[in-house]
Design goal:
The protein has 260 residues and is an alpha/beta fold. It has two domains: 42 residues; 187 residues, Rossmann fold. The chain is built from seven helices and 13 strands. The strands form three sheets. A six-stranded mixed sheet has the order 8-7-9-10-11-12, with helices on both faces. Strands 4-3-2-1-5 form a five-stranded antiparallel sheet, with no helix packed on it. Helix 3 packs parallel to helix 4.
């Protein structure tokens, strides 16, 4: 079976659990990027299977479930959702998230930057855009062969995300004044929370959906600033629930005004 760049495939060795896009082919090795999960990988051509329509149907069900159904009373009141700064190591996933915010009528600024550069630059972006919510994401992975789960050197980019979270907390120490959502696939959840994130991935070291950080940011942005968020309800909106994302109870960031 022949494969070309741009084809959608799964890996036989991983029980065809994830759909990838082929981004490059060198000799008999295909370089892959998750179609919907924040994951990059490579595989031998012999390990690949063509994508099938059943996966499309499953994804359509999830996307329909997370659509933002506007139930706000717009006859008398006006609403000021929290502003979002989304920093992403992947430009394609960033564009998908920005479209998600746009559909929800939320102000969001997107910045595409390599994960290793984010810690040195995040303070400047926070000072410039003054967001209520900041997302620090991109690509990550836990390499079991490198060491234990609690060893930060066993991760692709968790150390970069942790450094960026700490820099953001130097800018704003209070968790309710700056909501931080950090991490990507298989990130070191515990250390990201300790560093100061309100929400982080990945409690069970699993892959997360490309939109998971945006789903949480949107819900927090549109939750009243006077109330604590419903933590479990927000996590349940994500693709894999509390296995993929976790966090702490905090307040929303939306203000409600009257008259309209």
């Amino acid at each position: 079976m022949g494969f070309d760049i741009g084809d959608l495939v799964t890996r036989e060795s991983h029980d065809n659990d994830t759909v990838f896009v082929i981004t490059d082919i060198i000799d008999d090795i295909c370089y892959l990027k998750g179609m919907n999960v924040r994951l990059i990988a490579d595989a031998c051509i012999s390990d690949l299977n063509k994508y099938n329509d059943e996966d499309v149907e499953k994804e359509d069900v999830f996307l329909e479930r997370i659509k933002n159904h506007d139930t706000l009373d717009r006859t008398d009141y006006f609403y000021l959702p929290g502003k979002i700064l989304h920093i992403d190591g992947d430009s394609e996933y960033l564009e998908r998230c920005l479209k998600f915010y746009e559909e929800a009528n939320i102000w969001a600024m997107g910045i595409n930057e390599k994960e290793e550069n984010i810690p040195a630059k995040i303070r400047g972006w926070l000072e410039e855009y003054k967001p209520n919510i900041v997302i620090i994401t991109g690509h990550d992975a836990y390499y079991r062969r490198k060491g234990r789960m609690d060893d930060i050197n066993s991760y692709k980019n968790s150390s970069n995300f942790i450094k960026a979270v700490k820099e953001a907390r130097l800018y704003e120490r209070e968790h309710d004044k700056l909501i931080i959502i950090a991490g990507a696939c298989q990130s070191n959840y515990e250390e990201l929370i300790k560093a100061g994130a309100n929400f982080a991935s990945s409690p069970k070291r699993i892959n997360i959906h490309a939109l998971d950080p945006a789903i949480i940011a949107t819900k927090v942005s549109m939750s009243p600033a006077s109330q604590d968020i419903e933590l479990k309800a927000i996590l349940d909106k994500t693709k894999y629930g509390s296995s993929g994302m976790g966090g702490i109870i905090t307040k929303g960031t939306m203000y409600v005004g009257y008259p309209r």
